Amino acid sequence: MHLMRSLRARLLAVLMATVLLAWAIWLACQYVQTTHLQSDQNDRMVRGVAEHILLSLPDDIDTIRPQGHLQLPPDATLLPETKFDKIVFQVWVLDRRESVVASTGAPATPLRADFAVGHADAQVDGRPWRTYAVTDATGQVQVQAGVTHAHLHAELWRWIGASLKTALLVLAALAAALWLVVGWSLRPVTRLRGAIAERHALDLAPLPVAELPDEIRPLVDSFNQLLGRLDKAVHAERAFLAEAAHELRTPLAALLTQTQVALHSPDPQAALERLRDGIERLGRLAQQLLDSARIDADRRREEHGPLELAEIVALVVREFEATAARRHQTIGVTADAALGVAGNIDDLGILVRNLVDNAVRYAGSGGRIEVACRGDSGSGTVVLEVRDDGPGVPAEERERVFERFFRGSNGNGERGSGIGLSLVARIARSHGATVRTGTGIGGRGFAVEVIFPGLVE
To answer: What CATH number labels 7-63+82-171?
Structure first.
């Protein structure tokens, strides 16, 4: 399994399998072609031997009686066998059916028992033969020549064996060359792996791509883009932690001061009220930080289901009624029935809560807040709008209010954390919604509109 995960081994296996398959197909074609050619060549060779022997015989050969064979001198040396030595012949006198001349190794029985002329396959002495017979013009003498099938097959397998040895040598050389070439090509990748292993955990600088093969470079380019995004995310998280630490340190110091004032004040009521406001602000900041962390942790999760947005709005507004009453504010809610959206109930609760909290804090004492939830039948969308009649936000700052830790100028001295509306924008994006800002009630104040895609029935 580890071997097949190797690019070099995988490439070598695929190329070798392709070459072997192509070679096997070529060998099969060559076998068929060679078998046909060899059969034709052997037939021509056997026929040529028979015809040449017939033409070399004297015209009175039919009068000769078979005698013993002549022998070579004792000191003579036979030459090594050739393929012609495997061909045997017989000279027959047809009217006597008697063999007057025969080659060494020729069988005693006729190669063609029927003494017919031409090529034929015959069984002689229990062995298959390929034979050819030719008769002279007078019809008195017939020359029969032949070669065993075993010899023909041996010749064919000698050729196949030589081809196999050559092919194996070529394949071994090709495999070695491929192994070395792939290793040489992947050497920059090996160096890159070593460079990555030596890096510090937070070193997110782009990886070098100058020497990489063209096939690997797109992967490393994509990885470098990921490193760039990760570097931005790490810097953003560091900035977030620094800002969060600062935001928590400031109200804690204020709480400590107000607590000391309350302890030493003859009338601690005002100090306790300020202490309560500080605790509320600290609790709100802690909740927003927790919400932000939860959204970051769950941003890859898809748990969106059908929800009634109006019900969520009603529950959230009810939570803020006591706070609004203490500030002498009024909150009005108008919601159409059966406004279904696809979303995560926790995320949508955070979105509505931050919109209402932002309006309550910045509307000022005696302010008016309106929360509306309506459907747009023309576009099939659901619109959530929260607006107030407070001092509002300057037009040039309206788009920046959704940036994390951005605090715009306001006319009531309320200090925010710069987190609430950034959460609204992030949750809206994750739900495919769009956010718009505008002027609040009666041409004053601030309004935020979140437009959700409606459920498709």
So the answer is: 3.30.450.20
